[in-house]
Amino acid sequence: QSSPARCPFHHSGEGTITDQVDPTGRAISANAAAFDAFEGPYQVDPAEALRWSRAQEPVFFSPKLGYWVVSRYEDVRTVFRDNITFSPSIALEKMTPNSPEANAILARYGYAMNRTLVNEDEPVHMERRRALMHSFVPDELIRHEPMVRRLTREYVDRFIDKGEADLVDEMLWEIPLTVALHFLGVPEEDMAKLREYSIAHTVNTWGKPTREQQLAVAEAVGKFWQFAGGVLDKMRADPSGHGWMQYAIRRQMDLPDVVTDSYLHSMMMAIIVAAHETTAHASANALRLLLQNRDAWDEICANPSLIPNAVEECLRHAGSVVAWRRLVTADTRIGDVAVPQGAKLLIVTASANHDERHFENPDDLDIYRDNTTDHLTFGYGSHQCMGKNIARMEMRIFLEEFTKRLPHMELVPDQTFTYLPNTSFRGPDHLYVRWDPDRNPERRDP
Ligand code: HEM
To answer: The domain spanning residue 90 has which CATH number?
Structure first.
């Protein structure tokens, strides 16, 4: 490309044009050039940070990220729907390439994370998904519900008389982790260790660690990989349990080419994170959002039958997965924008979920919204989240217990919410709440 092509038609609207060009030779707008997925407004509120994009430039190339960013509802759904033109193969690729030193650490641990389900192409993906669907059918899921209820009650018991809690540290991280391990059939290990490993995996895959951080992250990810392998070896010795991983090992005996060794090891590690971190963040986001919208909170306290739709509306408004990735396999168009083969896409579901073209008054939290389940937080199409009903069930039970036992709970005022910097997973590191224990309904009406 000789000189920047300044196309006044492509960048309709206010965006000023820079001297930079995208991979197709079109000039890049100032907004697109400034877009930063690891700090600033996108970290605080991705939907708000891309308001300009939804209005003016719904598909743009981000030179800082090296990805094309897609922000409108229709476009994001179109990308999800066609998993041939838009391959999921890069879904778990490292956003920030490792230094050679960090790679050496991973190699020492024999780290070989590969395809799972979420980043597998067709036809293998569908065969595998079908082969492993059984554990997610409603009759199977219902078996986990009493445990979620019991755990929720036990955790709330621990702090109900205290009058204050950090709900993330004291409950919302550990219950989804316990449920995830139970679902997978993995013995409950040291929770703190698994939390550290999970964060490392997220930073390793979706974050932007410095060279120094990369070394610590690589150590933790390497250990996580070995831990997953060790658990798998024990399961292989006795694959008779109820968990999803034992089920997968048994399926491997019939379908060795579909349920491969590489799949089992990669999945064992990836799914611990996919199943628990997502749900922990989604629950923290939901409680924060509802407590910030006191009318909605009071309504679900008065009428718990509103909770399932409230859960869905929170997943739309403040989902825990805010962006996902696809690789363009042939020259194509997304909306009006030509995108070349080989382009990497960051499809920002949080932005799509706030698109006024699909959701009326999208920034309002409306627990009565009738199309709220159209949200894209669980993805869409053939890869749509298999665990969505487990997550929904956990969130519903958390809200049922809190609205019943601590309806007078409120957010500690003026707290600053912090987030782990990364492109895709979003939930506060802490969520401080308080209440007057003398007003606990159980004290007034034991
Ligand atoms: C896939 C989000 C909880 C298991 C996905 C995808 C997203 C997602 C965005 C990719 C979808 C796509 O490419 O179209 C979430 C969120 C959760 C959650 C926001 C919680 C609020 C869970 C849980 C489990 C789980 C609890 C398991 C127990 C999976 C699996 C896939 C997946 C196996 C791969 C499906 C496939 O590629 O066919 N999830 N997830 N997820 N999720 Fe979840």
So the answer is: 1.10.630.10
Which domain does 219 fall in, by range? 17-444
Q: Is the pLDDT of residue 10 over 70?
A: no
Confirm whether 2 is domain-assigned: no
Asked if residue 88 has its Cβ within 6 Å of ligand 1, the reply is yes
- Has residue 204 been placed in a domain? yes
Q: Using one digit for the tens of pLDDT, what is the confidence trace for 202-223?
A: 888 888 899 999 999 999 999 9
Ligand 1 neighbourhood includes 244 CB (under 6 angstroms):
no
Residue nearest to atom 34 of ligand 1 (CA): 118
**Mean pLDDT for all residues in the chain:** 92
pLDDT band at 4 (very low <50, low <70, confident <90, very high): very low
Q: What percent of the chain has pLDDT over 90?
A: 80
pLDDT for 190 equals 67
pLDDT in tens, 55-99: 999 999 999 999 999 999 999 999 999 999 999 999 999 999 999
Q: Is residue 10 part of a domain?
A: no
Q: How many domains does the chain have?
A: 1
| Residue 380 CB less than 6 A away from ligand 1 | yes
Domain membership of residue 12 (yes or no) is no
Angle formed at CA 362 by CA 358 and CA 367, multiple of 5 degrees: 105
Amino acid 12: pLDDT? 42
The number of the ligand 1 atom at minimal distance from the alpha carbon of 125 is: 38
The residue whose CA is least distant from atom 2 of ligand 1 is 378
Mean pLDDT of 31-52: 95
Ligand 1 pocket residue status of 274, Cβ below 6 Å: yes
